[in-house]
Amino acid sequence: MAKQYDVLFRLLLLGDSGVGKTCLLCRFTDNEFHPSHISTIGVDFKMKTLMIDGIKVRIQIWDTAGQERYQTITKQYYRRAQGIFLVYDITSERSFQHIMKWASDVDEYAPDKVQKILIGNKSDEEHKRQVATEQGTKVSGGYFMQYYATLSAFSQRSYPYCLQINGGKNGRTRKNLLFSLPLTLCMCFQLN
Ligand SMILES: Nc1nc2c(ncn2[C@@H]2O[C@H](COP(=O)(O)OP(=O)(O)OP(=O)(O)O)[C@@H](O)[C@H]2O)c(=O)[nH]1
């Protein structure tokens, strides 16, 4: 039987309820958008397998509930994550203010070397924007996050796997693949 994958990455989505974590995940895995908000209960996950430079990469993305009452459950998933997306909604100042709290939970419960990526979602709602891009840049720098992107789960246009991982097949190590992958994942969403 063919090997199902060469490497597995476990990624986690965190952020307040309603910022669009589930929608980002559905856009990434199924290229779908759900206009209604059905709150995640506890945790859920989806998987996607990508071929990146001849390597079969399985990405397992855990979608967590933003609601406070599930946080005892969701924190149990932090320690196995290799990458964490901290998501806020650009039209909600409050969701952005809470990023500091999510980031300090990550510091407390996730592995030290976890990749952290800040995502400002709902960039299609520019007219309702409450959080300037510069504020995102400042916070991501302050919390040692690797990347910062504004995205839209609503937007259909995507750039699937357009980022190539540097290094030839033989010279590539798992370590640099791991480092590069979260950015690849970001690039799979609509970047603008
Ligand atoms: N305009 C717009 N709406 C979005 C976008 N992403 C999500 N939404 C809407 O925001 C609402 C909440 O989205 P969800 O993905 O369910 O939010 P969540 O963060 O998973 O929420 P919890 O499961 O409660 O933590 C839904 O009504 C979505 O349709 C986006 O990029 N643009």
3D structure, described in words:
The protein contains 6 helices and 6 strands. The radius of gyration is 16 Å and the shape is globular. It starts with 6 loop residues before the first strand and ends with a helix. It has 192 residues and is of the alpha/beta class. The chain has one domain (7-157): P-loop containing nucleotide triphosphate hydrolases (Rossmann fold), CATH 3.40.50. A hairpin with a 2-residue loop joins strand 2 and strand 3 (55-64). Strands 2-3-1-4-5-6 form a 6-stranded mixed β-sheet, with helices on both faces. The chain binds guanosine-5'-triphosphate (GTP). The site of guanosine-5'-triphosphate has 24 residues, from helix 1. It comes from Coilia grayii.
Kindly list the characteristics that best describe this protein:
192 residues; alpha/beta; Rossmann fold; 6-stranded mixed beta sheet; disordered C terminus
Ligand identities: guanosine-5'-triphosphate
Give unreliable regions as ranges.
158-176, 187-192
Provide the structure class.
alpha/beta
Whole-angstrom Rg: 16 Å
How would a crystallographer describe the biggest sheet? Answer: 6 strands, mixed
Major β-sheet strand ordering: 2-3-1-4-5-6
- Share of helical residues: 25-40%
Shape descriptor reads globular
Topology readout:
Blueprint: E1 7-14, H1 21-30, E2 43-52, E3 55-64, H2 71-74, E4 83-89, H3 93-97, H4 99-109, E5 115-121, H5 133-142, E6 147-150, H6 174-188
Parallel strand pairs: 1-3, 1-4, 4-5, 5-6
Antiparallel strand pairs: 2-3
Bound molecules: guanosine-5'-triphosphate.
Residues 15, 17-23, 34-37, 39-40, 65-67, 121-122, 124-125, 152-154 line the site of guanosine-5'-triphosphate.
Family: Belongs to the small GTPase superfamily. Rab family.
GO molecular function: G protein activity; GTP binding; metal ion binding
InterPro entries: P-loop_NTPase, Small_GTP-bd, Small_GTPase, Small_GTPase_Rab
